Give the backbone structure.
Amino acid sequence: MSPKGKILGHTGISCIIAIMHEMPDSGPAAETVGGVRYKIHMKVSEAQQAFFAARRPRKDSPHTTDAYRRDLAGITTLLVSELGRPAEDLEVADLTGPALRSAFGVFADGHAKSSVLRAWSTWNQFLTFCVADGLLAGNPMGAVARPRTPALTPKPLRGEETPEQLLSAAAAGSRRARDPWPERDVLVIALGLVAGLRAAEMRALTSRSLVGRAGELRLHVKGKGSRDRSIPVQPVLAELIERYRESCRVRFPSVRFSPGSPLLLDRAGEPIGRGALEYLVKSCYRGAGLHDRVPVGANLHALRHTFATRLAEDGATASEIMALLGHASLATSQNYIEATGREQRAAAASNRTYRALDTLG
């Protein structure tokens, strides 16, 4: 390279560096803390969009994403009221400990502990992302009290014969409805009691979810957190599914059902909604006269808990329960085994005083 080229090269680089230092930053205003530059003036709405973009590789389910969006939107609305600024003007720098503490206090007044805990977790993840992405110097959620995590206690249906009574009543058409559909009622109850499906998992079933040949049938389930699983099922469940599908063809003769069509439908032939599914199960309890045997707040989930509890009572291991129910943690599955109290019952039965009681009769 010629001397002129060398001079131009060094001069060009120096000029570029000088110009870069003098040019105004076109992005969010930044502040240097401890030698690190933080983009403290980014809009909260932009930061939330970046948060969801960063989570895309995690493959969150639509249900999880919607829950995150609701939690972020709910607290953001309260921050708008607290700070007296339009939502579009809120900046990441406005997310201070006192502001968040006040917003969560108002939120807690109108929501259950579990909802507050979920919202706290969502905002903690969001603000942790902001710190990692250089939008904040620290996570202010440490200033917001976190509700204690409630103990995970199974809530199965009460009464040894309750599941069988519920199925029999549903098959007999006991549910009061303008348009009775016992084939669908029985299938929904069965999917909870013998397959342990969640409401969202039931709604995600299609005609091709049942796979395998006779004697090796399995139900492919799109589980929570994108954890798919395959549940072994008996021929009787396959028969229930076929009876239900035949009833669909009779009810909706002009509809063509493809293998990918949703399995559970409403009275109009559309995919059943979450609220309609919950109402269906609740009305089945009432129609059978068993509503007083359903734990508070359980409803459809009580069917799933009954499935898991019976597995534990019949000797299934925690790992087997985990695989069948699609739990993310083995500890969750262990709760069902501990709740049955087999060891505690055996220990109590060994009390020598029982022998004295036997002699009193």
The first helix runs from residue 3 to 22. Confidence is low (pLDDT under 50) at residues 1-26, 33-37. The domain at 162-345 is CATH 1.10.443.10 (hpI Integrase; Chain A).
